[in-house]
Amino acid sequence: MRESMRQLIKNPIFKRKETFLALIIIALGTYLSLATTDFLTVANLLDVLVNYSFLGIMSAGMLIVLISGGIDISFTAIATVGQYAMALYIINYGGNLFLAFLIAGVIGVVLGCINGFLIDYLKVPAIIVTIATLNLHYGVLITITKGRWIYGFPEWFRNIPSLFGSGGSGSYALSLPVILLVAVYLFTAFFLNRTTLGRQIYAMGGNQEAAQRLGVNIRKLKIFVYGFMGLVSGIASVIQAQLVQTVAPNAIVGRELDVVAAVVLGGASLAGGTGTVVGTALGVSLIAMMGNGLTLLGISSYWHQVFLGAVIVISVGVTSYSRRRGTQVRRIQVDGE
Amino acid sequence: MTRSDLILKLSSISKYYGGVVALDGVDFSLQRGEVHCLVGENGSGKSTLIKIISGVVAPEPGAVIEVDGRRITHHSPRESLERGIQVIYQDLSLFPNLTVAENIEGVQHFNRRGLMNWKQVREAAVRALDKIGVQLDPHALVGDLSIADRQLVAIARALAFDAKLVIMDEPTASLTRSEVDALLKVVRDLSSKGITILFVSHRLDEVLEIAQRVTVLRDGKIVGVYNAEEVDLQSLPKLMTGRAISSEKVPASTKTDQVLLEVRKLSKAENFKEISFTVSRGEILGITGLLGSGRTELALALFGMNRPDSGEILLEGKPLRLSSNRDAIAAGIAYVPEDRISQGLVMPQSVENNISITTITELCGRLGLIDPAAKGREAAQWSENLDIKMADLSAAVNTLSGGNQQRVVLAKWMSIDPKLLILDSPTAGVDVAAKDGIYSLIRGLAERGIAVILISDEADEVLLNSHRVLIMNRGRILEEIDPSKIGVKELNERIHATAN
To answer: A23 burial class (0-12, 13-18, 19+ CB within 10 angstroms)?
Structure first.
């Protein structure tokens, strides 16, 4: 029995984080379907999807940042700045949904590009630069706005129509957040796997010096990577504002590490060079399912973080263990054994 | 010889770094399709010359560089690449997170916009691998390959870039003998296809084996260009260093009759089996064998880092229980690992900190705080004893040459006053003169009564420096050899006879 378990774990498919995650998700889903009546309903699952679309969209940006060998802590502040500016504009001057995304997106891209430029120009670790810009952007925003919340969005921003349904509670609708989430994931997957730019980002994350020797423009790539993080942060911030119908300067800041955790859970390495959109989607799904499941089971929300922490440790531990067993140990063929 | 027979022609190349002369009026040329070796000590200007050829560094004004009869004007890496010059650096510049195919061919697409054509990438990669006659799974991750296979991937990539001249910087530094043979075969093959190879290596036996011509550099000047037949293992080191290198055997007199270490039937599954031997005070015991013969695993077992399944280790006649390397150090056993950069040194730290790290707990004053003066004295003493060349004790170890780095590792272990010193490939990657210096150091230690186990796969090194030699194969000791009764060639044959 133990031997067969060991054989099973040695199978290369178990070195793939995605497999392991998918198994956990299936197990957890099965358990929740049996233990609760509400979990396996279309309404509940769509609801979860909408609620976590914000985290999910930002995780696509974080995935690219981690693959490039960097990290971004400042994107929540960037999202907040974009969100605040967007809200002020549409409440005071009106506009439309496209304009709302445009404002938040452009602000996100600009602030993100500044991150990328600083990281490459100063040759300072990304974590330091983005901790600095997190404080900078958030501090300036709080100072100027004095932390005021914003309410009273225009009617068109309150009721955004959904595809294939009315969008009200109880009906099954593909709402805007879900469509955007899927679109962002599809784009990111296509970009990373099929474009030369996407492959250069993998290359830079794997061995930056070698990429440079091949003529890859490192600065341009970094500006792109952090600019993209800014863009998806801007998009996600509009989604979040639409869902809660208020803008609070402190609503998003503080959730940076949730996003990093989801992406790392999905198999991306903080050392750079690895990570897939499928893995990231699974990582976000697992976190979403756990949050939803624990709520349905009536477990206090304080426990959510404990579970999240435990799942990350176990997941990261198992993959690294099976990888080590598979490749690192040197065996010598000993005569007479 | 017509002009176009020269793939590369350099005239009056000089390079100064500040006031330091790296290259001084060098003329250098490569014939199409030849295998040309460039040798010289560290600091002789080899790397500067490579950097100038590859366009990374521009020479001083007045230099003329012609590739394939046409003059280079910009001295940029891109221009060199476009003219078909490919450098395979010692670190190989590969992407461990990408597949073999993408490393070889995918990277070609980096300077284009648009989409990847994965089918084309795969096919071109397989073609490039076929060209050098190797079969590797194009889907395998480069990070999962052996160093030897990665080397082949790097060569295939150079070919995929349509290289006319491939410069290989220390390509064999971390390969086993049979992997080296395979690599040299690929090199010969390329040369027969008209691709020029500039081969830079410290391992002179390989240089002599592969080269058609050899250029020797010393102190930024060309000492001479020789046909391979004109030079041998005795004359090359002399040309490189400008002085005679001693090749005297270690004196038998340092060996005593007092047995220090006795190993009895030591076994560990999938590592080694029934290993028995003794080492006396003042004796140098050579252990040789192919990589994967179990020699490093055995060394780690003696250092408490690889617990054996059965058998006994006796030090001074008393059984030794080693549950960790701390026990080994306490018993007076020191171990200099093969990979000094990742296992032996803290590279960005100072020489002083590196030397004193093994004795730091003894260098504490009252309150258990480190006594900086005592630490400085300790480091100064050992760096003087071992003649370490450095700016001063606060210089970071990564600014030192390979030979001096190895001395720092030795100094660190000497300071614990060991009874037994285990050296795993102590001269890997250091040049001829530095090797000589390390040999005399090891002999000096033996004279002071330290027992030394010298693990190496360089036959001349073990024969020159050991009182007795054990050949290991597949986890067992095959035979014991008296180095005075056997030559380099014969020992190599015996080691390799075990390969099959």
So the answer is: exposed
Where residue B309 falls (left for φ over 0; alpha for ψ -120 to 50; beta otherwise) is: alpha
B contact test, residue of A214, A216, A325 with most B CBs within 10 A: A214
pLDDT of residue A281: 96
pLDDT at B146: 84
Q: Where are the beta strands (DSSP E) in B367-450?
A: 420-424
**Within the 95-124 window of chain B, which residues sit less than 8 Å (CB to CB) from chain A?**
95-98, 102, 106-107, 109-116
What are the φ/ψ torsions at residue A153 (nearest 5 degrees)?
A: -70, 150
Instruction: Say which residue the tokens 């005795």 belong to.
Output: B234
Q: Is the pLDDT confidence value at A236 over 50?
A: yes
> How large is the average pLDDT for residues A150-170?
73
Identify the architecture of domain A39-301 in CATH.
Orthogonal Bundle (1.10)
Determine the Cα–Cα distance for residues A200 and A68; give it in Å rounded to an integer: 9
Ordered DSSP codes for B81-109: HHTTEEEE-TTTT--TTSBHHHHHTGGGG
Per-residue pLDDT, A13: 59
Helix, strand or coil, per DSSP, at residue B273: strand
- State the complex-level ipTM: 0.86
- How do strand B221-227 and strand B310-315 relate by DSSP bridges? unpaired
| A203 neighbourhood in chain B, CB within 8 Å | 95, 98, 107, 110
List all residues 6 or more positions away from B292 whose beta carbon is below 8 Å from its beta carbon. Answer: A330, A332, B176
pTM passes above 0.90: no
Q: B247 vs B222, which has greater pLDDT?
A: B222
Domain ranges for chain A, please list them.
Answer: 39-301
Task: Indicate the residue of A207, A272, A331 with minimum beta-carbon distance to B93.
Answer: A207
CB pairs under 8 A between A and B: 100
Could you tell me what percent of chain B has a pLDDT over 90? 44
User: Is pLDDT at A55 greater than 90 in this prediction?
Assistant: yes
The DSSP symbol for B341 reads I
CA separation for the pair B67, B85 (Å, rounded) = 9
Write out A225-259 in H/E/C secondary structure: HHHHHHHHHHHHHHHHHHHHCCECCCCCCCCHHHH
Q: Is the pLDDT of residue A10 over 60?
A: no
Q: In 3D, which of B16, B122, B3 has the Cα closest to residue B66? A: B3
Measure the CA dihedral A241/A245/A251/A253, to 10°: 10
User: Of the given ranges (A12-26, A50-64, A299-313, B51-65), which has the lowest mean pLDDT?
Assistant: A12-26
Residue A322 pLDDT > 70? no
In angstroms, rounded to a whole number, what is the distance separating the alpha carbons of residues B324 and B330?
A: 10
Verify whether the Cβ–Cβ distance B96 to A336 is below 8 Å. Answer: no
Residue B2: the pLDDT is: 47
Three-class DSSP category at A142: helix
Q: What is the pLDDT of residue B267?
A: 93
